Amino acid sequence: MSTPQPAVVEPTTPGVRDGGGTPPKRRARPIDRSHAREFTRGFVAKLVLMAVIDALGVYALFAAWNAEAWGIFAAMAALVVVANWVYFSRRALPLKYILPGLAFLLVFQIYVVAYTGYVAFTNYGDGHNSTKEQAIEALLIQNERRVEGSASYPLTVLADGDELAFGVLTEDGDVRVGRADQPLETADDAVVQGTTVVEVPGYEVLDRQAVLARQTEVTNLRVPFSDDPEDGSIRTQDARTGYAYTSTLVYDEAADTMTDTTTGDVYSPNDRGEFEDAFGKKLGVGWRVGVGFENFTTAFSDSRYSQPFVKILAWTFAFAILSVVSTFALGLFLAIVFNDERLRGRKIYRTLMILPYAIPGFLAALLWSGMLNRSYGFVNQVLLGGAQIGWLTDPVLAKVAVLGVNLWLGFPYMFLICTGALQSLPGDVLEAAKIDGASKWRTLRSVTLPLLLVSTAPLLISSFAFNFNNFTLIYMLTGGGPRFADASVPLGHTDILISMVYSVSGIDGSAPKDFGLASALSIIIFIIVGTVSAIAFRRTRSLEEIS
Predict the structure, then answer these.
(1) Cβ neighbours of 208 (radius 10 Å)
(2) What is the arithmetic mean of pLDDT over 512-531?
């Protein structure tokens, strides 16, 4: 019996035949104009975004180039190149979302930490602010004296944008113009009336009011007389007459020595970044050099810092721990009270409770500083009937005031997180405890708090770290005072470690600048906070396992 063969189906399309013929004409697919418009808008938006990023990047590159900050220049160039590759490459889709965060992490975290670590091992501070080349230039400038018997020159102060210049009328009647980085050169097209230069092409002649507004810049400006440093420079004190000045110090580049021409003393560089003579006399300007772990040993061995450091370290821990405990206790108490469904007007009360949280911390600290004033503060004059209590001048009361104000500022945050945590607790667990006959106190202690701490413990750790470095409250409320009576540095009873770093750095002008020691103390703070946080997070994991 033969197997039936499948039927051959002829193509029904006209013009198509088996083994030949022309192929059927395909109908053109309609163009999806909405998709094209969306693609065009996305591409244009990408171009605009990259144009903005590249413009900012090029601006930063030029700024770094002008400042000769080659590390920043290289980092910015790399960021610009990577940004262009990421946003114009289809293979780097995940990086399109990660790159901005990575860039900010690099600029504001990694760079800052690395630079702080570098400064901590140097003597960066007053007298050691720059490089050796800059220190030599500063020494030559600062030790300039007027050349005896030199002529005086009628002088006019000029400006090229924001940069100042001098127009000097020489004895030959020529006008010579120069700036700090450009020696005097003859200006043939300058206009002179009598002995006054009234017009110089390319420069603006400053009137008396403009000169007075920039008086410090004018008196500090020195214009090289020529390309030879030994010819000195032109300086002025009255913006009308210029005199030739030369430095009493001469730097010998081959011998790497500085010689005082008036005394004949020779200064050589020492390992501390200073020029020092054979008798130990040093010149006033030095440069940054590495000092190893000297800043760290100073923090613990120098009595000027070690004694206040121990007191401030103990108070910092006490302040951070008590702040977390007090704010959490009050916030939890209020959260439990206002979580009761039988309480009417709970939404209004909750709104009122978070009002202190809506006020900026630095502003609230300033307000409390005024209200706690001993003489005219609201607390003494109104609430206590004219009492003269030194809330901010007594060592003990100042600490009580700091904790009280921080409690007022911090409990709304704890109230919010505790309210959210209470509302997320499983109702069946609480109901089971109630059925088992547990009292409210036993339920709170054995059920509510353990479950609550699982979700709030990380926030408590972050609150501890925040209060450990709560510079704003201390600086705005007490300024770290009252001061230690037996300390030779400007530190006080309410200073915490971060405010101690600020005072030691000398930024506020209360002490000589010592950025190296301040950076070393910052690293110590980082190690302390990191260690405490790591231990606390391990304890948090144990709470999760118990729950």
Answers:
(1) 10
(2) 92
Say whether 1 sits in a helix, a strand or coil: coil
Q: 3 exposed, middle or buried (CB, 10 Å; 0-12, 13-18, 19+)?
A: exposed
By C-alpha distance, which of 188, 192, 197 is closest to 241? Answer: 197
C-alpha span between 537 and 69 (Å, rounded): 40
Give pLDDT, residue 119.
95
Torsion of CA 281, 287, 288, 294, to 10 degrees: 10
Q: How far apart are CA 78 and CA 504, in angstroms?
A: 36
pLDDT at 16: 46
Sequence-distant (6+) residues with CB within 8 A of 360 are none
**Structural contact between residues 413 and 358, judged by C-beta atoms closer than 8 angstroms:** no
For the stretch 2-32, pLDDT in tens is 445 544 444 454 444 444 555 555 555 555 5
Task: Identify the CA nearest to 214 among candidates 145, 141, 165.
Answer: 165
User: CA angle at residue 478 from 477 to 479, to 5 degrees?
Assistant: 105
**pLDDT score for 438:** 76
Distance CA 403, CA 201 (A): 65
CA atoms within 13 A on the CB side of 170: 13
Q: Which amino acid appears at position 318 of this protein? A: A
Class of residue 82 by CB neighbours under 10 A (exposed 0-12, middle 13-18, buried 19+): middle
- pTM assigned to the model: 0.75
* Phi then psi dihedrals of residue 381, to 5 deg: -75, -40
Pick the closest to residue 270 from 259, 280, 255, 284 (CA basis).
280
* Two structure tokens written together for 162: 């924001």
Please say whether the beta carbons of 167 and 175 come within 8 A.
Answer: yes
> Cα 371–374–379 angle (5° rounding)?
40
What is the widest separation between alpha-carbon atoms in the chain?
137
Separation CA 365–CA 480 (nearest Å): 13
Q: Which two tokens stand for residue 268?
A: 């050589």
Place of tokens 């198509």: 16
Report, as an integer, the average pLDDT of 414-443.
82
Q: How far, in Å, CA of 255 to CA of 371, rounded?
A: 64
**Residue 239, Ramachandran bin (φ over 0: left; ψ between -120 and 50: alpha; else beta):** left
Give me the amino acid identity at 335.
A
| Three-state SS sequence of 355-399 | HHHHCCHHHHHHHHHHHCCCCCCHHHHHHCCCCCCCCCCCHHHHH
Dihedral sign for Cα 58, 63, 65, 70, please: negative
Instruction: Look at phi and psi of residue 240 and say left if phi exceeds 0, alpha if psi is from -120 to 50, else beta.
Output: alpha
